[in-house]
């Protein structure tokens, strides 16, 4: 390897849509507010050690968002930060405070929308030793593809008692004959064919490339026929249009897909029941924004992992990816070196997998598994486990590095 080849370089997207990843890559990160100052250094220690073991290196480039950005620049989300994520394609972030009463609804939502990160990816699995409220958490091994840009989260709503609400209600009454109470706020739920298909396409491609057995389309199509029902139909259309040789719907194979990937669907409410009672029947899940929001937290709780659940927001077409801790800033613990850095560490694992650095990702997961199996854990797990050794946030990271 020449010196030049080892110089830090940017990720690039090739003309045929593949990420070009140098061995020494520059990646932007947002430390995060509150406990960000605890979990980010801990996670970075683990990332750097795992990369070094595998001949890789990340040149971390700090960019600002949230309270730290507001204090230093007067902006919650400076233009340079958005530009850095745009230019460097992939990055990672800690939790951010949602400014109350500010112009931005949520910094996380803003970043997802600006970069058109249409997939919210949430893998849910159990780590041996993690306290769980169910008898067989080991049966949960699902990957949720949640649509990130449409549905009620698009933020298309008007407040009750405003002129906008009165005008919209009048239009809906005149044009459609719908009666909406004068004291109602009104929200709009767009679900498009292109938005549904690109999300489901990503889920199918992921399932195929990761050797998964099925993709379940989760929806409320029995009630909301033209939005959630259409999502289901467009999903099955896509299977026929683009994946006919590699995937097949339940209806077309009677549940016997042979070598092909099985695509099925389930109503959202039943999914919550069955994911609890028959978790092994679910594998990859593709769903709209609100269903996915509820489902990912419910499933994370099932494996005891709500404090360590990782997440990623991805646009597979442009290559942009922003990986993030899924919990909030937990301000009462900020600076105490106490909280669990597992969520941001596992988000880093997802990021390394996305970069194709599978060996780095696997090393971290193995070391994390060993650390938890040795019952070396932070306070949140220690309070639920017998015979645990409670360690600080930084000590937990060192324990993982020791087991790499
Ligand atoms: P939170 O920060 O997630 O904290 C709620 C509770 O979750 C904590 O009190 C703690 O429980 C537990 N927890 C959170 N992080 C943990 C960790 N790393 N290790 C162990 N336990 C952890 O939720 P919040 O108090 O509702 O929100 C605080 C701020 O975060 C708000 O400004 C909110 O907008 C923001 N937020 C940001 C994101 C994001 O950036 N992705 C997500 C959610 C919320 P115990 O006290 O029981 O130990």
Low confidence ranges:
none
Please tell me how large the radius of gyration is: 22 Å
Q: Strand tally, please?
A: 17
Structural class: alpha/beta
Largest sheet composition: 11 strands, mixed
Shape: globular
Alpha plus pi helix count: 15
Spatial strand order of the main sheet: 4-3-5-15-14-6-7-13-10-12-11
Q: Keywords, please?
A:
404 residues, binds NADP nicotinamide-adenine-dinucleotide phosphate, 15 helices, two-stranded antiparallel sheet, globular, alpha/beta, 18% strand, eleven-stranded mixed sheet
Task: Write a concise synopsis of the structure shown.
This protein has helices spanning 3-6, 36-53, 67-73, 79-88, 107-114, 163-176, 193-209, 228-242, 250-253, 268-277, 289-302, 342-355, 358-373, 379-382, 393-402, and strands at residues 12-13, 19-20, 24-30, 57-62, 90-93, 119-125, 141-147, 157-158, 186-187, 214-219, 247-249, 261-267, 284-287, 310-314, 321-325, 376-377, 389-390. It has 404 residues and is of the alpha/beta class.
General description of the model:
The protein has 404 residues and is α/β, with parallel strands linked by helices. Helix content is 41%, strand content 18%. It has 15 helices and 17 strands. The protein has helices at residues 3-6, 36-53, 67-73, 79-88, 107-114, 163-176, 193-209, 228-242, 250-253, 268-277, 289-302, 342-355, 358-373, 379-382, 393-402; strands at residues 12-13, 19-20, 24-30, 57-62, 90-93, 119-125, 141-147, 157-158, 186-187, 214-219, 247-249, 261-267, 284-287, 310-314, 321-325, 376-377, 389-390. The strands form four sheets. It has an eleven-stranded mixed β-sheet with strand order 4-3-5-15-14-6-7-13-10-12-11, with helices on both faces. Strands 1-2 form a two-stranded antiparallel sheet. A hairpin with a 6-residue loop joins β14 (310-314) and β15. α2 packs parallel to α15, α12 (342-355) packs antiparallel against α13 (358-373) and α13 crosses α15. It is globular and about 65 Å long. 45% of the residues are buried. The mean pLDDT is 93. It binds NADP nicotinamide-adenine-dinucleotide phosphate (NAP).
């Amino acid at each position: 390897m020449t010196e030049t080849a080892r110089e830090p370089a940017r990720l690039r997207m090739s003309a045929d849509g593949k990420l070009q990843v140098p061995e020494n890559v520059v990646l932007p990160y947002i430390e995060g507010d509150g406990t960000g100052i605890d979990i980010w250094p801990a996670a970075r220690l683990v990332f750097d050690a795992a990369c070094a073991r595998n001949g890789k290196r990340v040149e971390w480039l700090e960019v600002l968002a949230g309270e730290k950005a507001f204090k230093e620049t007067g902006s919650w989300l400076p233009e340079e930060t958005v530009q850095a994520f745009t230019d460097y394609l992939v990055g990672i972030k800690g939790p951010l405070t949602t400014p109350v009463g500010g112009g931005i609804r949520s910094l996380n939502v803003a970043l997802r929308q600006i970069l058109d990160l249409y997939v919210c990816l949430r893998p849910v699995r159990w780590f041996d030793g993690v306290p769980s409220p169910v008898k067989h958490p080991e049966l949960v091994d699902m990957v949720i593809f949640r649509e990130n840009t449409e549905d009620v989260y698009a933020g298309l709503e008007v407040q009750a008692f405003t002129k906008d609400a009165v005008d919209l209600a009048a239009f809906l009454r005149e044009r459609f004959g719908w009666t909406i109470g004068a004291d109602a706020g009104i929200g709009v739920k767009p679900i498009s064919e292109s938005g549904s298909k690109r999300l489901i396409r990503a889920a199918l491609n992921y399932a195929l490339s990761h050797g998964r057995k099925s993709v379940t389309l989760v929806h409320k199509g029995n009630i909301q026929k033209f939005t959630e029902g259409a999502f289901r139909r467009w999903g099955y259309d896509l299977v026929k249009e683009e994946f006919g040789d590699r995937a097949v719907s339940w209806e077309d194979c009677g549940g016997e897909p042979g070598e092909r990937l099985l695509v099925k669907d389930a109503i959202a409410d039943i999914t919550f029941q069955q994911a609890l009672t028959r978790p092994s029947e679910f594998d990859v899940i593709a769903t709209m924004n609100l269903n996915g929001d509820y489902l990912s937290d419910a499933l994370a709780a099932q494996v005891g992992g709500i404090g360590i659940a990782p997440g990623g927001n991805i646009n597979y077409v442009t290559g942009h990816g922003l990986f993030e801790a899924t919990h909030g800033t937990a301000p009462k613990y900020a600076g105490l070196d106490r909280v669990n850095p597992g969520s941001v560490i596992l988000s880093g694992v997802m990021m390394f997998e996305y970069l194709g650095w599978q060996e780095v990702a696997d090393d971290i997961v193995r070391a994390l598994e060993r650390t938890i199996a040795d019952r070396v854990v932070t306070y949140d797990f220690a309070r639920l486990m017998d015979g645990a050794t409670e360690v600080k946030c930084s000590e937990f990271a060192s324990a993982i590095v020791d087991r790499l």
